[in-house]
Specification:
single chain; alpha+beta; OB fold (Dihydrolipoamide Acetyltransferase, E2P); BirA Bifunctional Protein, domain 2; 2 domains; 20 strands
Length: about 500
């Protein structure tokens, strides 16, 4: 009954359809609405000795993954969401007619309901002696080959359901992802943060420097944007009196796709009144230690040949000193755009004609600093031009109170003390508008309503954001975000 390794898909579907028709002719519903289950497979295995001793009858359900044997007996493997169990079917136990029907209509991939008793085989394998079976779902398409799995990455991403069926490690990775998200939610809830939801359709795409997706609302006859970040709405809530808020959700940025970028991605942003970015550095260390211990059972893990230790405290390096250390360039010596552009190009950083000083500084950082940072490290106090929503440092207004957490040569957390001066914020937005008019599609737009909200008064506040997809990639060993996003954005398949 085991399918052969080289089966024509069209022929296989025809065979399966015929088995479906056979089942119907025999009065068997191939897609019943009701099923029963007394135990998951994991529960049977966990309490196997007691169930076997007491000869307890159990009812389990799942997908057929293998069938072995012939004649009047066979073994089969049944898999549910919690584990896999071996079944033993004998014609003199379930009846000759039932056994013959099983052989006639059951394929790999079918879902069954099994009633039986736990027992140990002569080879010492925990199994179920089947007393009766019920077809729950007839599968009309063959599963990926059980010995070789599903290895074509293009098919894996396009048909994630096959990937999950064929590759247990993939299922484990997404279970870990769920655990990471759950841990972050619990972390913030324990600290008095309230989870909220803010608009994904926005009249102004603000809160981050990114090119947005644009759509049109027919009833209102207005253009709207898919949000690039929830930041400006979350800060409106701080103005409104909620002192600690966070949001888990999708953001959308109309940018390129590569191993570390997907047009839609998941982030968690948190805002806390009456604190600053320094406290959020400590909070970040505590959160990552908790995630590491809960997901991997230790604070140290191996990722892409690098050993990452999440135990704090993490080193803190200013943006200025980081560029000086890794690029051998003192940005204080290049106060204007043109001189900085020449210095950057001299060390191999490409500069476009439209690139303003902030873009050049950011590109210097991404090319010359980020690839060198493996251990968790806070890069703090960025130039004002890079973060138009962050508060200036009282000691030097050319820089803002900010940090980014780098590890494994990538960026994972961004945070800063929030700018709550409406006059300064208006001036920053006006500068962004100037950049936008000059061709910078990622520059932010003026948001008059947000400035009005700041004018009502926002207390001293720190904001924090983490890229969930990138973080989960580290904790699951994935080298591309496509591995840790269930349904990544792909180019349409050519027919």
């Amino acid at each position: 009954m085991q399918e052969k390794e080289s089966v024509n898909p069209v022929e296989e579907r025809a065979v399966r359809l015929e088995k479906l028709h056979t089942a119907v002719r025999m009065g068997i519903d191939p897609y019943p609405a009701r099923s029963e289950r007394t135990h998951t497979i994991a529960e049977v295995l966990a309490h196997f000795e007691a169930l076997e001793t007491e000869k307890t009858k159990v009812i389990i359900v799942g997908r057929v993954r293998a069938v072995r044997g012939h004649g009047g007996a066979c073994f089969a493997d049944l898999e549910d969401g919690a584990g896999k169990m071996q079944l033993h079917l004998k014609s003199d136990v379930i009846g000759a007619a039932s056994f013959e029907t099983f052989e006639k209509i059951i394929d790999l991939g079918d879902f069954l309901q099994i009633t039986g008793t736990p027992f140990i085989t002569k080879r010492g394998e925990k199994s179920i002696e089947v007393a009766s079976w019920t077809l729950l779902t007839k599968s009309l398409e063959g599963l990926p080959d059980k010995w070789h799995g599903l290895t074509d990455t293009e098919i894996r991403y396009r048909k994630r359901y096959l990937d999950l069926i064929a590759n247990p490690d993939v299922r484990l990775a997404f279970r870990k992802r769920s655990l990471v998200v759950q841990t972050i939610r619990e972390f913030f809830t324990e600290r008095g943060f309230m989870e909220v939801e803010t608009p994904m359709l926005q009249a102004i795409a603000g809160g981050a420097s990114a090119r947005p997706f644009k759509t049109h609302h027919n009833a209102l006859d207005i253009d709207l944007f898919l949000r690039v970040a929830p930041e400006l709405y979350l800060k409106r809530l701080i103005v409104g009196g909620f002192e600690r808020v966070f949001e888990l959700g999708r953001n959308f940025r109309n940018e390129g796709i590569d191993h570390s970028h997907n047009p839609e991605f998941t982030s968690i942003e948190a805002y806390q009144a009456y604190t600053d970015y320094r406290e959020h550095m400590t909070m970040t260390e505590e959160l990552l230690v908790r995630i590491a211990e809960r997901v991997n059972g230790a604070t140290t893990l191996e990722y892409d040949g690098m050993s990452i230790n999440f135990a704090g405290p993490y080193p803190r390096l200013t943006f200025h000193d980081a560029i000086k250390q890794y690029a051998n360039l003192d940005i204080e010596d290049y106060s204007d755009r043109d001189s900085l552009a020449k210095a950057a190009e001299k060390i191999g950083v490409k500069v476009e004609t439209r690139d303003e000083r902030g873009v050049i500084l950011d590109n210097l950082y991404k090319k010359m600093v980020r690839p060198h940072i493996v251990a968790p490290t806070f890069i703090i106090d960025h130039p004002t031009e890079i973060l138009p929503l962050a508060k200036r440092k009282a000691s030097d207004g050319k820089y803002v109170e900010s940090f980014q957490l780098l590890l494994a040569k990538g960026e994972y957390v961004k945070a800063f003390t929030e700018l709550n001066d409406p006059i300064d914020q208006r001036a920053r937005f006006e500068e962004q508008e100037r950049l936008r008019e000059g061709g910078d599609e990622e520059a932010q737009s003026m948001d008059e309503d947000f400035i009005e909200a700041l004018s009502v008064g926002m207390p001293p506040t720190a904001g924090w954001a983490i890229g969930v997809d990138r973080l989960c990639a580290v904790f699951t060993g994935a080298h591309s975000l496509k591995e840790i996003i269930l349904f990544p954005t792909l180019r349409p398949e050519e027919k």
